[in-house]
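Hi team, as promised in this morning's meeting, here are the two structures we talked about. I've kept the exact order from the run log so nobody has to guess. The first one is mostly here for context; it's the second one we should focus on when we meet again. Sequence first, then the predicted structure tokens.
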Amino acid sequence: MDHRATTAWIDLAAIRANFRHLRDIAQGSIVCPVIKADAYGHGALAIAHELEREGAQFCSVALAKEALDLRESGIQMPLLIFGAPEHSSSSLAIRLGCAQTIYTEEHVRILASAAKSVGKKAKAHIKIDTGMNRQGLPWTKARSFAGLLADYPEIFVEGIYSHFADADSPDPSFTDLQMKRFSIALESFGRVGITPKYRHIANSAGMVLYPKTRLDMVRPGILLYGLRPAPNIELPEGFEPALTLTTGIVYIREVPAEESISYGRTFTTKRFSRIGLMPIGYADGYPRALSNRASVLIRGVRAPVVGRVCMDMTMIDLTGIAGARVGDEVLLFGGRTLPVSEISNLLSTIDYEVVCMISKRVPRVHIDSKPQEE
């Protein structure tokens, strides 16, 4: 057993199936999968290539560097960068043929200047703030922003978009309000001749729960990876979790009763115990907050995490698992047997955070459980 046997396994068959299901739900709207943050920890390059083979017409990322990595790996499909344009990266994004997000006068000037330096029109998507209050042009200022853009022919407005703050809530009132505000902003742009090809606002929860929000394009993120959009929403039927995180038992210690385990002596054995050591810790993205709370699967049987999770190692109680030995594979989370949601519930967080915090030192291995014929 390699003492760094910890691996994140990503099933491309699940990604394919989830993308196809999203396309069915979209009912004609273009599906623009969100693959920022290394595809939510799933490995953006492999995911993007799989999506391109599946006929994806668009993908979105957060940073120009993420777009550059995709282009250098051979990705040709259109890309949207969510992050605001910067002097240091806008020219590069234009050369890469990427659309950039704008919502301030400064963004417009940066993009126009970069377009002039490159000698090529800049593609832009205008971000409208309809209630998230994070980034974006206030929806009430659409008309004045449209007037500003008239002075910058270097910029081609390819899209206008917004982002839901609360689409996963059982109360639809704020989502309805955001949609109304977005419609008003679109009308304001339309009155001065700005009618972009792509109008988009729906995220994973929005596109599933609010069909009227699908418009020209939808931007699913978490559902592409087969994970639930929020703790209060069960994973919709037809989606499959793509990622499993595994490690192995690298050492077993026999510990008498009344002995403490790990830092802080937070766990004490109540009986003669077999304690297994796993080569994974919080530096790998297995949080310290799971100490004495989580369990793992070995040979189909649950084994509790005992003592504090360390930076590189975690201990588990193997006493109740007959035959457990060094070299056995351990499922930390993933799939349906020990779902990511179990971990996120223990941490009082969301599925997004659990998969995104798997660190770079954990190798991502992409497999295909249902290979397709060429």
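And here is the second protein, the one for discussion:
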Amino acid sequence: MEMSIFITALCVAIIYLLMKFLEMRVIEKQNKPLKILARDTLLVYLSVLTGHFILVQLSPITNTNSVTQVFTAKPDF
């Protein structure tokens, strides 16, 4: 089952938002503006998408484990 990267990034961002909200309410006991939480959540979402894009772009470079094929016999001409 292959999940879309957008769904994965959304799940990560929602978990981040919940954890920051719990930290704000339980640990710090201070209210932060919702605008700041939304901005940070959007930043996390975009970071996941950017990280995935970079990994996909670098994957052809890192999968070069095969030996290069070289012709070593005498030529027929």
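Starting points for discussion:
The chain has a mean pLDDT of 87.
The helical segments are 5-28, 34-62.
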